[in-house]
Amino acid sequence: MMQKDFIGNNSLDNIKQIISDIGAKKILLITGKDSYKTSGSKEKLAQYLDNVIIKRFFDFEVNPNIKDVQIGIDIISSFKPDLVIAIGGGSVIDIAKLINIFAVHVTKEKEIFEFVNKSSSVTRPGLPLIAIPTTSGTGSEATHFAVVYIGNKKYSFAHKYVLPNYAIINPSLSYNNPIYIKACSAFDALSQAIESFWAVGSSEESKNYSREAIKIILKSIEMAVVEGDEKSMFRMSLAANLAGKAINISKTTAAHAISYPITKYLNIPHGHAVALTLGRFFVLNSQYSANQLNDIRGIDYFDSIIKELFDLFDCSGSEKTSRKWYQIMSNIGLETDLKSIFSEKNIDYKLIENDINLERLNNNPVKVNSTQIKDLFL
What we know:
Strand content: 5-15%
Number of helices: 17
Order of helices and strands: EHEHHEHEHHEEEEHHHHHHHHHHH
């Protein structure tokens, strides 16, 4: 499915034309609880929504769960909108994508549970969906998958019809985010770009997206997060979208796989959780024997990829690149010591070990064993 992108601080102007083209009279607006106002979204959207009937949905968990999806499906069933607009962070856009595609296929919670495991059962698209991010990190507006929790278990639902029809990247919506949110978002985007670059599932197209995103982020991240420089934040929004396009093709790898239980059990936001281990994977992915390589493109190919990443960081090897990674984290105010955080939380490591996403581990270019993972925490 093709997506139309609109990028720039005037990109919201395209909403009026989209509404007109669709002939939308009723719109389901999915937003964050507080970010809708604090980001400036409410004020900026008002001028485009004055001639349509709006139903706003915002009362859902930060990590979308099956009960929230059910509520959204019920709203679509009763309200019968012509268009869905999602404006917010990654969770807002994810739940909008889930509600939109599930609403045309299932009605009850039991059916949702069964449908999550059968993305092949998708037969038709949902309503036209506009995704408008208010953070510069997740890239959810550019991906054909979305996360949903059923109980304590995380599922990733993927299908080409999950991809929003329109993505509007208006960097000004991210300018008012707190520094910590900016920092987490920035490292989410940078982590996605790097993981996509070395992923088993990468392609030349995804690597082009990744490469450009990495270059932009490394030049802009500190000015954007610490100084609040608007030109740098503008560039970070573009890079986050590029990173989203990259993982839409390649998916992510080991650091993302390990990040989910870090967020769940240590209560650390996703971007920060990924960053805590990714720096070590420059080293782990560089120290391998031939039988540990997951990528069938071979040793010469992977060595060229990892060397290019070192060059992008202007470093001569894995240890120096790892140190630079954690130095950048520190420079923008992110804690870097996962072992210290883990020991303070007093969590049973078995909880972490049993909740790691194995699919993403298999997409890592180098096989990672349980001892190596454990050593990241203990």
